[in-house]
């Protein structure tokens, strides 16, 4: 939830750290703070609110220049978002500073123990306890890294911690458990961050830290151990995108850029997965044909937008692969007695690969010996490491809090998986799979076409900025699209927005319809005549009750025109692939409506990009 940066090298640490925080602000923006070591002294600065407030404070009162430092951008868990609770937190002597992402679950007990021992705690946070524990452990000797290892052994919960100490002026020390932390390896300088975008302007060489590891970062090198101090094996990797991918590139918001990048993201996610003979190659799933044939049930677990991709996966998997498929909110999955076995394949979908609920669901499935496949966008994140296989979506960095290009690429990934299973299990003829793969390959151009026709959608969105509520209806794969449209509007425009399965309308939701209420309806292709005609009836029913109908239908669908106050046409594609084109207008709609209301669409209130706490 929070963003973390650490630096040691030859450059002014404050500049590197603040630049890194700017790239990580999407992770949390309740407050920001920095700590720099200069001339053996620790200087800290922190401010509630967005990074701009901290920048202003630093300009007014610049800290002494140093070449070692760290910074934090916060999404509040313990204690309100004010200056006092902003990180870094320091110990009683002011010589140790700590920043933290996650939740220390036994902090109340640690805090009581510290207070009894005479420590004065100045904030409401769980983090501050760590600074004081370090103070005590440093007295026992062994230096900052050893002190942090000892402290970590006492902590429960999820944490990334980074600490600096005036007594160890050449080292930044970090620790991770269930929360992300990556190392950037530079030349005479090294970096620590919650994700690579923080240091991508300086280096594309990174080290993935494992669970329960402590890293010592010096200008000349990096040392990693486990919490007991034993040297740990680490995995190095090269980041395959550069700094331009993490910048706005002329757009007002990252979200606008990411919506526009979707044709490329879809194309990149298909790349290298279709052989010259038209057969799918998904070695990344790390499942032999025999294992895939043994699978008798698939369970998809995910949260938020990724969950909506999971709902669409169910239609694709059941239709193409002929396997029963359940879709479960990751946060509910492990608290239910789900029936899993070694022949169950659990697919966990997560853009960030750090969503705690998704990670916990994966661990729960692992305990029950199910096979695990991840769909993830972030290389080096935790989820891929905990799964047997992973299909990376090649969306590139998604920085806006609202997920857009990640969703479309997750859909591509689930289509590929469903078709691949069909290919291996022979549930569809080879030429049927091939024909669908060819249609998939044409989707980037279809998405591009949608993007070219979005001006009327933007106009419509602006005209609805004064509304209090918008409903979304869909059937079949249009139902998860309706849910996704509603979620985008909620999180960006802070409006009451709800998605319904159109068939459920008469079982209750129709009571919500009143004069001029905007209702967005996603219409299935005409080729699905029964579904199509039923939803056209639904449109008539709501219009008869005064709703303002906004209809998304395929080009050339004349039957909906008479009942649509606004008609948004999208290219005609097969039903299962339709979410790739029908979701895009809903993203544009939410983004424009929120902008018209004056909201910051990249950083909606109360939210953060990755939800790394349960
Ligand atoms: O990183 P993940 O895909 O696991 O994130 C899951 C949700 O938190 C995420 O999709 C969230 O719902 C988005 N902000 C929606 O736009």
UniProtKB/TrEMBL annotation:
Domain Glutamine amidotransferase type-2: 2-220
Gene Ontology molecular functions: carbohydrate derivative binding; glutamine-fructose-6-phosphate transaminase (isomerizing) activity
Domain SIS per the UniProt entry, residue ranges: 288-427, 460-604
InterPro entries tied to this protein: GATase_2_dom, GFAT, GFAT_N, GlmS/AgaS_SIS, GlmS/FrlB_SIS, Ntn_hydrolases_N, SIS_dom, SIS_dom_sf
Intracellular or extracellular location(s): Cytoplasm
Known role: Catalyzes the first step in hexosamine metabolism, converting fructose-6P into glucosamine-6P using glutamine as a nitrogen source.
Listed name of the protein: Glutamine--fructose-6-phosphate aminotransferase [isomerizing]
Gene from which the chain derives: glmS
């Amino acid at each position: 939830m929070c963003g973390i940066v650490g630096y040691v090298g030859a450059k002014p640490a404050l500049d590197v750290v603040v630049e890194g925080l700017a790239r990580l602000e999407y992770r949390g923006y309740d407050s920001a703070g920095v700590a720099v070591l200069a001339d053996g002294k620790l200087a800290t600065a922190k401010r509630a609110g967005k990074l701009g407030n901290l920048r202003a404070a630093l300009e007014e009162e610049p800290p002494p220049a140093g070449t070692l430092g760290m910074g934090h951008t916060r999404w509040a868990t313990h204690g309100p978002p004010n200056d006092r609770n902003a990180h870094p937190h320091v110990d009683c002597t002011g010589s140790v500073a700590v920043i933290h992402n996650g939740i220390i679950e036994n902090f109340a007990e640690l805090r009581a123990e510290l207070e009894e021992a005479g420590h004065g705690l100045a904030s409401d946070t769980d983090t501050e306890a760590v600074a004081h524990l370090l103070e005590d452990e440093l007295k026992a000797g062994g230096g900052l890294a050893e002190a942090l290892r000892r402290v970590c052994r006492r902590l429960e919960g999820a944490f990334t911690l980074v600490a600096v100490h005036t007594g160890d002026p050449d080292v930044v020390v970090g620790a991770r458990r269930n929360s992300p932390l990556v190392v950037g390896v530079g030349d005479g300088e090294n970096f620590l961050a919650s994700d690579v975008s923080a240091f991508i302007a300086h280096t594309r060489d990174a080290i993935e830290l494992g669970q329960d590891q402590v890293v010592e970062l010096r200008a000349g090198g990096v040392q990693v151990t486990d919490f007991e101090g034993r040297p740990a094996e680490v995995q190095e990797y090269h980041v395959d995108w550069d700094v331009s991918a993490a910048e706005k590139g002329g757009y007002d918001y990252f979200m606008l850029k990411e919506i526009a990048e979707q044709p490329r993201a879809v194309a990149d996610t298909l790349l290298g997965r279709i052989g010259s003979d038209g057969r799918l190659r998904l070695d990344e799933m790390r499942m032999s044909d025999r294992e895939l044939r043994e699978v008798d049930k698939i369970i998809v677990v995910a949260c938020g937008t990724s969950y909506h991709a999971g709902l669409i996966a169910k239609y694709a998997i059941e239709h193409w692969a002929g396997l029963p498929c359940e879709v479960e909110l990751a946060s509910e999955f492990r608290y239910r007695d789900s029936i899993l076995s070694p022949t169950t394949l659990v697919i966990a979908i997560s853009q960030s690969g750090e969503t705690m609920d998704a990670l916990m669901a994966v661990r729960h499935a692992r305990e029950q010996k199910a096979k695990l496949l991840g769909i993830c966008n972030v290389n080096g994140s935790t989820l891929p490491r905990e799964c047997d296989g992973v299909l990376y979506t090649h969306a590139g960095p998604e920085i806006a809090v609202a997920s857009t290009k990640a969703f479309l690429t997750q859909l591509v990934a689930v289509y590929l998986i469903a078709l691949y299973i069909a290919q291996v299990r022979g549930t569809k003829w080879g030429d049927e799979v091939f024909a669908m793969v060819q249609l998939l390959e044409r989707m980037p151009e279809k998405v591009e076409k949608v993007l070219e026709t979005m001006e009327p959608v933007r106009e419509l969105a602006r005209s609805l900025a004064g509304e209090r509520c918008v409903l979304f209806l869909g059937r079949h794969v249009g139902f998860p699209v309706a849910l996704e449209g509603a979620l985008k509007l909620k999180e960006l425009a802070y409006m009451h927005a709800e998605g319904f399965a159109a068939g459920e309308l008469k079982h209750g939701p129709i009571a919500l319809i009143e004069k001029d209420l905007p209702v967005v309806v996603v219409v299935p292709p005409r080729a699905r005549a029964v579904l199509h005609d039923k939803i056209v009836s639904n449109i008539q029913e709501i219009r008869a009750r005064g709703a303002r109908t906004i209809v998304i239908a395929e080009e050339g669908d004349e039957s909906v025109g008479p009942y649509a106050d606004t008609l948004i046409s999208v290219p005609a594609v097969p039903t299962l692939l339709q979410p790739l084109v029908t979701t895009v207008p809903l993203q544009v709609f939410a983004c424009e409506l929120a902008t018209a209301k004056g909201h910051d669409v990249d950083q909606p209130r109360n939210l953060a990009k990755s939800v790394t706490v349960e």
